[in-house]
Specification:
alpha/beta; Aspartate Aminotransferase, domain 1; Aspartate Aminotransferase, domain 2; three-stranded antiparallel sheet; 10 helices
């Protein structure tokens, strides 16, 4: 850190992304990427868009917005497209939180929430998950501030039913509730249908996971027209050209190729079931996941030791060095072959008696 950095950023701890090592080829099950490439249609549309990169991209993502409005059953004025869903989440911290309106989120959740709060000078309150690592709905009914809920949650994979989300949203119409649905396509219940009913709800989605566009960086927010206008004011005050032309075109292709999307999601859900069963058969506790990853622990085995041993064997998983999470590893659901490799590596590790 240089001597020139603003004092307000002196204590900022940045978000730590999952490893992207380049030293050798790994079975990469640490960053919840889709194991399948983007839709061929998405790839073709992105290549076609590359010919126009001499021109600025459309800040309104007009074509993408038209296709998405029909696909999701919403109006164009109820959407904003962003550089990954991280950007729309950051916009929400900027727009709906301040010294008088803190951010509120679980103590075990997406690691960017406290980073966004500190980056924007926003006070925040962390509400502990239950002993079963679940969100307790009653803890959010009367709390003051802007609520951020990942549903399904990360890194646990546990999801709230739609009825519980609605209970939180309707409990206080004077506050904004942000529901981060990055993983909803893998088994969660979306809150999109609640948008016309509640003007204090913001739902965010990403194309990174279920639509294989992690490297493209495309996110979307759904909300009332007034909330979208607030978010677009932030967009146009920072970077109106936030979604590049190739990414927007790939997003169109990904939405139009619904058969490819559903096939991949179905395969991942089936592989998740199999991976869960395999690990349970060798003594692991696995939380019920509605995401494209599982959260697993085995009594007597350190999460860190398991992570390090698997890495030595060429398999990457995610370990979180936090008191409530230290016994767990988060494992992205990969292909059938990747699962075979992972399970073999886990069994070999257990034989080493860590």
């Amino acid at each position: 850190m240089s001597k020139f950095i603003s004092k307000k950023l002196n204590g900022l701890s940045a978000y730590v992304p999952g490893e992207q090592p380049q030293d050798k080829t790994y079975v990469k099950l640490n960053t919840n990427e889709c194991p399948f490439p983007p839709s061929p249609y998405a790839q073709r549309m992105a290549r076609q868009a590359a010919g126009g990169l001499n021109l600025y991209c459309d800040p309104e993502c007009t074509v993408l917005a038209s296709v998405a409005a029909e696909y999701f059953g919403v109006k164009k004025q109820n959407m904003i497209f962003t550089n990954g869903s991280d950007e729309v989440l950051n916009f929400a911290f900027i727009a709906f939180c301040d010294k008088d309106t803190p951010a509120v989120f679980p103590d075990v959740t997406y690691g960017f929430y406290p980073v966004f709060a500190r980056l924007n000078g926003v006070p925040y309150k962390e509400i502990p998950l239950t002993d079963a690592l679940e969100v307790s709905v009653k803890d959010y009914l009367a709390v003051k501030g802007t609520v951020f809920l990942a549903n399904p949650n990360a890194p646990t994979g546990v999801a709230l039913p739609l009825s519980a989300v609605e209970e939180i949203v309707k409990a206080d119409p004077t506050r904004v509730v942000v529901v981060d649905e990055a993983y909803v396509d893998f088994g969660g219940e979306s809150a999109l249908a609640l948008i016309p009913k509640y003007d204090n709800l913001l739902v965010t989605r990403t194309f990174s996971k279920s639509r294989s566009l992690a490297g493209g960086r495309l996110g979307v927010g759904f909300a009332s027209e007034a909330i979208i206008e607030d978010l677009k004011r932030i967009q146009y005050s920072t970077n109106p050209y936030n979604v590049n032309s190739m990414t927007a075109a790939a997003g169109v292709g990904a939405l139009l190729d619904d058969e490819y999307f559903k096939k991949n999601v179905g395969t991942i859900v089936e592989n998740r079931r199999r991976l869960t069963a395999e690990l349970k058969s060798i003594g692991f506790d696995v939380l019920p996941s509605s995401a494209n990853f599982i959260f697993a622990a085995k009594a007597g085995v350190s999460g860190e030791a398991l992570y390090l041993s698997l890495k030595q064997k060429g398999v990457l998983v995610r370990y979180f060095d936090k008191p409530r999470l230290k016994n767990y590893v988060r494992i992205t659901v990969g292909t059938a072959e990747e699962i075979d490799t992972l399970v073999a590596a886990v069994k070999a590790t257990l034989e080493e008696k860590l």
